[in-house]
Design a protein that fits this description.
single chain; 5% strand; mainly alpha; two-stranded antiparallel sheet
Length: 76
Amino acid sequence: MDNSSIVDVQEGFLKAVTRFPRRTVYAIKYHVGLNLQLRKKRIEKRLARALALVVNLKELTIYWAGIDEVLQGCEF
């Protein structure tokens, strides 16, 4: 991932969590190009790793669009 991609992901993530918390997944899919047809567990891991790497956070709370479940404390 080059520097421009990292900036895009950071901006997309920050916009998603500050303005549209429940649409975070859509923003990340758009910027990282994740395939949301994958099994949910696999998506969780890929999203958490991408965000931990790019945003440099050890703990993440990801709100899934259209789902009330919240994933907390993803650590790497």
